[in-house]
Amino acid sequence: MEALLRFDHVSFSYHTMKGETTALTDISFALQEGEFLSVVGPSGCGKSTILSLIAGLLEPEKGSVFFHGLTRQQADPSIGYMLQRDTLLEWRTIWDNVLLGPEIQGRKNRQMKEKAEELLKRYDLYPFRNSRPSQLSGGMRQRAALIRTLMVEPELLLLDEPFSALDYETRLAVGNDIAKILREEKQTAVLVTHDLSEAISLGDRILVLSRRPASIVHEEILDFPKEMQPLEKRNIPRFQQYFQSIWRQMGHEE
Ligand code: ADP
Ligand code: MG
Fold first, then answer.
1. Which residues line ligand 1 (CB under 6 A)?
2. Would you say the pTM of this structure is higher than 0.90?
3. Which of 10, 12, 18, 21 to mutate for ligand 1's pocket (most ligand atoms within 8 Å of CB)?
4. CA 100 → CA 48, 54, 84, 97, 125, distances in Å?
5. How far apart are CA 162 and CA 194, in angstroms?
6. Helix crossing, 168-184 with 138-151: angle to 10°?
7. C-alpha span between 123 and 180 (Å, rounded)
8. What integer is the mean pLDDT of 33-56?
9. Residue 30 pLDDT grade (very low, low, confident, very high; cuts 50, 70, 90)
């Protein structure tokens, strides 16, 4: 089967008044439909640049990005984004935030409202539908932001360090919740993070990037029992084994 997304020898540099910054060199990988891919690498190595190339906000300098074997123009993929800041609009209720996408697309119809209701109920936010974002906890806001993104049924969801603004315990809990939602909704996703534990506990597969300019130094299927939740994964020996071997691949000593 043709991969949903494929990077074929992609390189990219930023050009500014101060000169050239090479962010990516020769990145090749494929992402299958339904897969959750973690991409881990040090801060500033080029992770967000990879997501911008997927989103079509940047064009590769060398190489190509394919969707279902087609160019972006041919395939016109629908892509959702989830960022560190949840970007919910404070002057709108949770309900109106969740229905923002359909509203902008001019299809805020009964079907969409039913879908919003169902998702809010399924993920425990329905009682808060008339609240403003600031009345919710950080974790609840991230869930609401995710539901808003899922409303428009993106083919591919991009997560750019979406938990890094949260404190440690909240980050673990929210990561667990978000991973559960994405699995239940069978959402194809790419998560980029500098947090190796997060990358291992959430992904089906991991790509490890070098320091800038990023190249792929390691790739591994994360073979955990299928229904196991991220929080549970962190407590089994296999997790430590992955952590130690990938930590070394990242150029750290033990
Ligand atoms: P990461 O997300 O891994 O932290 P980025 O992809 O944001 O890294 O950035 C990779 C490198 O490219 C960094 O050194 C950063 O300073 C540089 N960079 C990012 N965006 C720009 C830009 N718009 N113009 C110039 N340099 C940039
Ligand atoms: Mg970044």
1. 14, 16, 21, 23, 41, 43-49, 212
2. yes
3. 21
4. 25, 23, 19, 5, 16
5. 11
6. 20
7. 10
8. 96
9. very high
Report which protein residue has its CA nearest ligand 1's atom 13: 44
**Residue nearest atom 27 of ligand 1, based on CA coordinates:** 14
For the stretch 119-159, pLDDT in tens is 999 999 999 999 999 999 888 998 999 999 999 889 999 99
The C-alpha atoms of residue 221 and residue 20 are separated, in whole angstroms, by 34
Give CA–CA dist 134/221, Å, rounded: 39
Helix ranges restricted to H, the chain: 47-55, 72-75, 94-98, 100-104, 110-122, 138-151, 168-184, 196-202, 230-233, 237-249
Residue 107 carries which side chain, given as an amino acid letter? R
Nearest-atom number in ligand 1 for the CA of 194 is 3
Residues surrounding ion ligand 2 at CB below 5 Å: 47-48
The widest CA-to-CA distance across the chain, in whole angstroms, is: 57
Confirm if 115 and 157 have CB atoms less than 8 A apart: no
Q: Please, what is the Cα angle at 117 between 230 and 100, to 5 degrees?
A: 90
Whether the Cβ atoms of residue 79 and residue 155 lie closer than 8 Å to each other: yes
Residues in a beta bridge with 208:
40, 218
Estimate to the nearest angstrom the gap between the alpha carbon of 25 and the chain centroid.
21
- State in Å: Cα 107 to ligand 2 middle: 33
CA atoms of 15 and 22, how far apart (whole Å): 9
**pLDDT tens digits for range 183-193:** 988 999 999 99
